[in-house]
């Protein structure tokens, strides 16, 4: 029998040529450096730190794995490297060591780059997540302009989105469109051309920036096709920041309050450590060296689940039912009674509790403070009801005794503000979340390739095999 041995390099060279060349650098604007240059600066130190962990600490214990981890969703099991953020049960989320209030105080805002609004920009959060450093206003402005230059959708993506039936769920459309963008993947083209493993991160970063830049236009085109709102053209203004452009494309550009709220919402939702379903999925699929488009499309499918990204619309649905039952200005006792009726019916109170947190979610606190600063939100009955619930519900849940964390999570507040500003299409809320979560999941793909992390492949056991191992 004739046996053939073909090297991977030969297989790559035989692959069909890509239409798009690998991008070398980002455009330079008025900033002191581009984001690509800033990431390049941290690569040697990150690799040195990782090498030290492998050589000196590989056999150190992080605690024993238990049967409860195996059958309980791996909850709390320390087995994943995630650079951008750390979630502490008591302190909440920190981004490279910075809390949300610290980020709000230090990260450049819309006003800092000459745009209307006071909230920190998602571009600022993206820079922090990728570099671990607070960017200057000029660096953020340069990044914002770079993303604007990348944001236009290819014609084939527009045609794909336009071909979807209006009845197809917006998240399904979103995931499919993101997946189709892999046609233009610079990482896939470089891999097929035989690029060195140590250079994988360059084109992963390029793909990630291209994708983050295009997500607002994808979301806006889906919004227009399904709900008939927006300009229908997804026009990008190079003078506007990422979320300002998204708001204009969706038809809400004149609502300064909503634009600023979306900046805050997308910045604080961007990363929430790596163990959540969407972030973990992007990391898992990316570990097989799938490009960022395929990896993030998979993450969006996880985000679409009712136990993850759909939660905020479920909270809002419940709150509106609550308002319908008790009126827009109920007494405290009416609120308590309705909470107990929900619990006694066997349902949970949506928007309360968290898989990790044991204190109030600092993202809820940030969004709640935003509502306190806007007169139009203070006049909203549903916003006021949600705020009152956040003060009354914890004591009821404590008395009920079946909730480890009786405090509000971010979903308790996020939907009611969108609803008040007129963005009341519940099915679209998770798409907005999907625009946000890319800020954390995609930078981690860059880190995965800077560090050369291996394919993720945990060991599984059947129940029989598990029982047999326990009897030994």
TrEMBL record:
Keywords: Mitochondrion, Transferase, Transit peptide
GO molecular-function terms, A-Z: acyltransferase activity, acyl groups converted into alkyl on transfer
Compartments, as annotated in UniProt: Mitochondrion
Keyword Chloroplast: no
Transmembrane segments: none
PROSITE patterns documented for this protein: CITRATE_SYNTHASE
Secretion signal span: none
Family matches, as InterPro entries: Citrate_synth-like_lrg_a-sub (IPR016142), Citrate_synth-like_sm_a-sub (IPR016143), Citrate_synthase (IPR002020), Citrate_synthase_AS (IPR019810), Citrate_synthase_sf (IPR036969)
Record bears the keyword Electron transport: no
Origin superkingdom: Eukaryota
BP GO terms, sorted: carbohydrate metabolic process; tricarboxylic acid cycle
Pfam families found in the cross-reference section: Citrate_synt
Gene Ontology cellular component list: mitochondrial matrix
Record family assignment: Belongs to the citrate synthase family.
NCBIfam families assigned: PRK09569.1
Name used for this protein in its record: Citrate synthase
């Amino acid at each position: 029998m004739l046996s053939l041995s073909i090297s991977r390099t030969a297989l790559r060279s035989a692959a069909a040529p890509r239409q798009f060349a690998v991008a070398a650098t980002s455009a330079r604007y008025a900033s002191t450096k581009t984001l690509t240059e800033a990431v390049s600066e941290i690569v040697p130190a990150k690799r040195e730190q990782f090498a030290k962990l492998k050589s000196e600490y590989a056999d150190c214990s992080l605690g024993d794995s238990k049967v409860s981890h195996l059958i309980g969703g791996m909850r709390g099991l320390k087995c994943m490297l995630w650079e951008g953020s750390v979630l502490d049960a008591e302190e909440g989320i920190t981004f490279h060591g910075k809390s949300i209030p610290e980020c709000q105080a230090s990260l450049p805002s819309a006003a800092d780059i000459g745009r209307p609004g006071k909230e920190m920009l998602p571009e600022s959060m993206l820079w922090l997540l990728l570099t671990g450093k607070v960017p200057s206003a000029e660096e953020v402005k340069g990044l914002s302009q770079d993303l604007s230059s990348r944001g236009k959708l290819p014609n084939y993506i527009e045609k794909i989105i336009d071909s979807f039936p209006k009845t197809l769920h917006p998240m399904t459309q979103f995931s499919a469109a993101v997946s189709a963008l892999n046609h233009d993947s610079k990482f896939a083209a470089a891999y097929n051309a035989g690029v060195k493993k140590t250079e994988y991160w360059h084109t992963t970063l390029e793909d990630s920036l291209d994708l983050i830049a295009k997500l607002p236009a994808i979301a806006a085109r889906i919004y227009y096709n399904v709900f008939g709102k927006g300009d229908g053209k997804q026009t990008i203004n190079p003078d506007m920041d990422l979320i300002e452009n998204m708001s204009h494309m969706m038809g809400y550009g004149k609502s300064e309050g909503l634009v600023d709220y979306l900046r805050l919402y997308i910045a604080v939702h961007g990363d929430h450590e790596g163990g959540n379903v969407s972030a973990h999925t992007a990391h898992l699929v990316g570990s097989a060296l799938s490009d960022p488009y395929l990896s993030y499309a998979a993450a969006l499918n996880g985000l679409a689940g009712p136990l993850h990204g759909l939660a905020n619309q479920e909270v809002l649905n419940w709150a509106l039912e609550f308002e319908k039952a008790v009126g827009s200005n109920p007494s405290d006792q009416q609120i308590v009674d309705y909470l107990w009726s929900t619990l006694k019916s066997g349902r949970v109170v949506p928007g309360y509790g968290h898989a990790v947190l044991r204190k109030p979610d600092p993202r809820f606190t940030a969004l709640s403070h935003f509502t306190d600063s806007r007169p139009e939100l203070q006049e909203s009955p549903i916003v006021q009801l949600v705020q009152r619930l956040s003060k009354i519900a914890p004591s009821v849940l404590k008395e009920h005794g079946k909730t480890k964390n009786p405090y509000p999570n971010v979903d308790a507040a996020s939907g009611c503000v969108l609803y008040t500003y007129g963005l009341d299409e519940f099915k679209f809320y998770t798409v907005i979340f999907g625009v946000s979560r890319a800020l954390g999941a995609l930078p981690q793909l860059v880190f995965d390739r800077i560090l050369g992390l291996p394919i993720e492949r945990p060991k599984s056991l059947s129940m029989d095999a598990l029982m047999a191992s326990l009897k030994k």
